[in-house]
Write a structure and sequence with these properties.
Elements: E1 14-17, H1 27-36, E2 48-54, H2 63-66, E3 73-77, H3 87-97, E4 102-108, H4 121-132, E5 138-144, H5 146-152
Parallel strand pairs: 1-2, 2-3, 3-4, 4-5
Helix pairs in contact: 3-4
Length: 167
């Protein structure tokens, strides 16, 4: 009470580092400063740090920030830049490099959103998920974005039972 809040009465409980352009410096310092606010929460979960990275390991824009070890989750996009030739190998590199973080596979929900980056349920399962879902820091699937998902029903699954094995 009495403290000016930039988002009104909304509670910000997480920050996602999605650094798509610009400089790469100082994101490690920003991560440490944001994470330091957790001491004010007296044992409760405060500010969760996540990062959305490009598929090819490492993502130079996030490397310094991720090296802090403060990120709970890393969403690795297997779409968007056309350079992710071996999704499974790249995801295994991410998981090995950041064992303290949950690593999620970022997919696009429609070929209309990214024709080159779209992965069907079948391809996602047989090429990637059946291998990495056994790794200890596999975190699940991150779907971009809700608009395309509602339009295509990607998360509803057009191949019953296939995604249930790994979600």
């Amino acid at each position: 009470p009495g403290v000016a809040r930039p988002f009104g009465d909304a509670v910000v409980d997480g920050i996602d580092f999605f650094i798509d352009q610009g400089a790469t410096e100082h994101y490690d310092k920003l991560a440490r400063r944001l994470y330091a606010h957790n001491k004010d929460y007296k044992g409760r979960l405060g500010v969760m740090l996540t990062a959305t990275a490009r598929c090819v390991f490492p993502d130079q824009r996030l490397q310094a920030a991720l090296s802090t070890g403060l990120f709970s989750r890393i969403h690795v996009k297997v779409f968007g830049d056309g350079r992710c030739a071996s999704r499974r190998e790249e995801l295994e590199k991410w998981m090995a490099a950041y064992p303290q973080s949950r690593v999620l596979v970022g997919v696009v929900a429609s070929p209309e959103a990214d024709r080159d980056g779209y992965v069907s349920h079948k391809d996602l399962y047989y090429d990637v998920l059946q291998f990495i879902n056994k790794l200890p820091n596999y975190g699940g699937i991150m779907v971009w974005n809700r608009y395309w998902d509602k339009k295509t029903g990607w998360t509803a699954g057009n191949e019953p039972g296939l995604l249930d094995q790994v979600l």
